[in-house]
Write a structure and sequence with these properties.
The protein is mainly β. It has 3 helices and 15 strands. It has 2 domains: 130 residues, SH3 type barrels, CATH 2.30.30; 57 residues, SH3 type barrels, CATH 2.30.30.100. The strands form 2 sheets. The chain has a 10-stranded antiparallel β-sheet with strand order 10-6-7-8-9-15-11-12-13-14.
């Protein structure tokens, strides 16, 4: 556990995460590879590898209040600290807000967690496959609250017969000859038909028959249209 961050528990900080996103809040807890921040409304779970830098807000300029309750995702019994993998496991099936890329977060719930990606049922984009390496933060919804006033029954589920690959790269290969969207909502969002995949390079064909070549390591999300 990082002793520097541990010394700042209960301090108000300003954190810059990957993508130049700024989050203000009080450090509530510290896990083996993540921190829990309270922004005055929500508990935000942030992987340490996406924290670019942070400063202490001694004056609490945003007037962030102390939490009146406890996070819904906490350390398991008999464990000293929480990992981000355990956060995802505890969040499975619950309504959450996640941030991956672009200006807007995604709202929905996690249905499956694989080796290096997870399956997310988005209220807007339906079934999405999201690389774990690019997940910047996760916010559990309050109990009995759902995105857009929906519940799980109003969000389309992944077909039961849709088998999942163990790793993200192989899952992307399943979309060969299909039209997909990569990196939804970001300035590097791409729509096209997946022609072929070889040695980390994905060839997609756009509507006007132009070809774009993407590095699999930089593909954050994928969903079929």
């Amino acid at each position: 556990m990082n002793k520097i961050i541990q010394s700042l528990v209960k301090q108000v900080v300003q954190i810059e995460v990957s993508g130049k996103k700024i989050i203000n809040g009080t450090i509530i807890d510290l896990g083996s590879d993540m921190i829990v921040l309270f922004n005055g409304t929500d508990y935000i779970y942030i992987p340490l590898n996406h924290i670019q830098n942070f400063t202490v807000d001694c004056d609490n300029e945003n007037e962030i209040e102390d939490p009146k309750g406890f996070p819904s995702i906490t350390t398991g019994e008999g464990k000293e600290s929480l990992s981000f993998g355990e956060v995802l496991t505890q969040a499975k099936g619950k309504h959450v807000e996640i941030y991956v890329t672009g200006g807007q977060p995604l709202h929905g719930y996690i249905t499956d967690i694989m080796n290096n990606y997870f399956v997310f049922q988005s209220a807007v984009y339906k079934t999405m496959y999201i690389s774990l390496n690019h997940l910047k933060w996760l916010i559990p919804y309050a109990q009995n609250e759902g995105p857009y006033g929906l519940d799980n029954h109003n969000i389309s589920l992944q077909p039961e017969n849709d088998s999942l690959a163990s790793i993200f790269e192989i899952q992307v290969e399943k979309f060969e000859n299909k039209i997909v969207v990569f990196n939804t909502g970001g300035n590097k969002s791409y729509i096209g038909k997946v022609n072929k995949i070889e040695d980390q390079i994905v060839e997609i064909q756009t509507a006007r028959a132009n070809f774009i070549y993407l590095n699999l390591d930089h593909i954050k999300t994928v969903h079929q249209v």
